[in-house]
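Minutes, project check-in
Item: structure for the 299-residue chain
Input as provided by the requester:
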Amino acid sequence: MNAVLEEKVSIIEAVPGKIGAEVIGWDVRDFTKDSPEMETLRQLIYRNKVVVIRDQHDLDEQQYVDFAHAIGRPQVYFQQNYHHPDYPEIFVSNNLNEDGKKFGVSGTGRYWHTDCSFEKHPLSFTMVRPLIFPKSARETSYIDMARVYRELSDELRAYVDGARAVQEAWPRYKVQECDIDRSITELIENFKAECPPMSHPAIIQHPVTGEEILYISSGFTSKLEGLSFEENERVMQALFEFIEQPKFIHTHFWEEGDLLIWDNRSLIHKGSKAKAGEVSRMYRIGVYDNLPFYVGIEP
């Protein structure tokens, strides 16, 4: 890794072919849209794909949201049951009630995916700040889909080049209290109406780095357009098996005070699963960087 030391700030970037940068010495509470560090951070994310900012221990909810506004435009997720009650920009992954009331949604993101690929305008950046760690599961894993595309076999590449991939969220729907007495069929139909399937190019081009990226995941991608059901079953299984090989996986092991930000164009990710009875709480904010998600789509 290459280390850059500026005053009391240490920035360690990934070596070529790897992902992940580390920043020590920043206090994101001091950042505004005009802070010179903001452009440095954006470029770190584009180059390294995932960035950890260490030692953000005293960041409260308002300061977290303010930091998101400094980076870009915070997302308000389309389902309210994920919202923090006072800060709708904060997506709450949590299995611990607050004052006896359900607070956020538990068990989120434990499958390979990129956030909001099922929307017309997918999410540029995701940032996550854990508040309560389970004892047994303190990691998030990532796969660099530009590298995966570079290493695809000619046979698999022939299926994805020029193709469109259908992204669907309904299989990941979390049942809510208001769903009592509604059938599974009704739940699926209602959710598909709220969040219909969306297609994007199977290969996208990054608007900043120019990299070509395989934009599919076993979590949200249901098929490639134009293939029969049987051929899709075979091809998608082969693609997912290739993508999810251990050699492609980069794992971040969380430390107290970590704040992670990553580029959803370039990476798929998967959260770890805690043991039964363990508690956890994470605050996620999605951020749009106001650029096209990929070359050829409107920002």
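Outcome recorded: Residues 1-5 have pLDDT under 50 and may be disordered.
No further action items on this chain.
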